[in-house]
Amino acid sequence: MSTATTYRTCPRSGLQFEKNAESLMKANAFIGVVWLLIGGILAIGVVLTRWPAVHWLPADKFYMVLTAHGIDMLIFWIIFFEVAVLYFASSTLLRCRLATPRVAWLAFALMLVGSVLNNVTVFRGASSVMMTSYVPMMAEPNFYLGLILFAVGALIACFVFFGTLVVAKREKTYDGSVPLVTFGAITAAIIAVFTISSGAIILIPTWLKSVGIVHEVDALVYRTVWWAFGHSSQQINVAAHISVWYLVAAVAFGAKPMSERVSRMAFLLYILFLQLASAHHLLADPGLSTPWKVVNTSYFMYFAVLASMIHGLTIPGAMEVAQRRKGYTKGLFEWLRKAPWSNPTFSGVFIAIIGFGFLGGISGVMMGTEQLNMIIHNTIYVPGHFHATVVIGTTLTFMALTYYLIPVLFKREMVLPGLAKWQPYLFGFSMYFFCLVMMGAGTLGVERRHWDMAFGGSPLAYEWPGAAYLMMGLVGIAGVAAIGGGAIYILVTVGSLLFGRRLEDGEVSARFVPLPRAAPTVIAQSYGSAGFAAPGTFALARVFLISFVLYYFINWKYLSTLWGLS
Ligand code: HEM
Ligand SMILES: [Cu+2]
To answer: Mutation test of ligand 1: which of 38, 57, 73, 226 has the most ligand atoms closer than 8 Å to its C-beta?
Structure first.
């Protein structure tokens, strides 16, 4: 096997990039951002239609645009970027060459062709089946074929990642166990293999049905298997963005995890309990019995929730410990006040952590509970919840990571740093607000699966409380602000790649360079525990717990008023 390649040690970060891995990371991250751009442009159409006073697009255009928005964002943007993260967590953090670069380019090509084919098909107009593409509603064959090609490409990329771990082990580029960030990425990739296989199991027969070879795909089986894919893919995102949180805690503060062992265990919980948690997507379906649903969502769901809560505690905790060690020990929160708030890598991640936990997490547990689910099922509350997880959690985290990668990976000085500094605040906080008002409107009953909340033209009008219209108007305003925040991100990143001052490569060598002694903690091994010396984080955790309990209680109370006993 030829190993003719070179390694570059970045003078700005101490990270070492192998040539093939570097080009592949750049290509995958870049195409991901292009999909974010397209998905963001489509968001304009979606949001200006759900804003009642504007109600821009007619139904057919709306559903076409919405289908593309969901797929381009949640599948194409996120997964392209995740492939870059996987290559980073293997090749770069383990300082080894990427296994089988040619195969990795093949994976990239399949993903590119698949994503373009899917989108072109959506815009032909006969495939507005939404991201979930539930049968028996059928799209054109190339809609499914595009998704399948994309999935095969992503699966191959996961295997390149695993191969790279093997290379690192065999060539002894690190000793001890892999760093925590790599461990988190391994979790994500294991889940990805399962996820993508489930997607294939259900999309291949559906594709065959669309070309007329298979005659029937059972609707209930479809939904069950589709969600083995749909829910798990969110668990990939969570494992990936949490790995990035640990990475950023390390690069922004030199923070070590409070307890490596606990953090690793928490990643394992995702693998173990993810499938049980998928059931929350089937709560309104007749397939599973009610007692099963109640037991599942009242008990088992919390194992996966526990994992996220552990990370939510240990990551800010690690930042706090690192800051306190630097002398920021006054009161509960000096460590937080003196954090690098004008560095968008840090602020983006911190805004993501808080929003993901408070908005995405609490609403997820509420809606994941069998009985409470019935209050908000198929209302606009649902996209309110998942924009808190996939936009505030995953997307904002990946944006924050990009700011770090512009000088380190892309070797460019960032353009418009003043704008970049504000971007996480604009995007993050307008998204906070967007999610909150969507959830508010959903609690009042505003539907998700109908593009016109006024139900114009229907013989029996429905009288909404005025607040419902108000909140959907606010959804429109907050959505437009968030799109503005997204546009600034694109402007800064693409602008930096095109016009940013070139930075020097750093030393290039033909062999990997072993870890220097003063290596950044993310790549060095770190064992043991930093102790529970994070009182500020514990205060935040108590606020979280109280919000959680209150919100839960309010919803049970609300449920009881809907269900009179007389
Ligand atoms: C600027 C930011 C964004 C805005 C303003 C926005 C807005 C919206 C709106 C208004 C809906 C329609 C809700 C409905 O009527 O059912 C929607 C759906 C959706 N959005 Fe976004 N979005 C944004 C970013 C994102 C991102 C970054 C992702 C994923 C990472 C995403 C994933 C989705 C998905 C999966 C759907 C559901 C599509 C379906 O029902 O098939 N969005 N978005
Ligand atoms: Cu789920």
So the answer is: 73
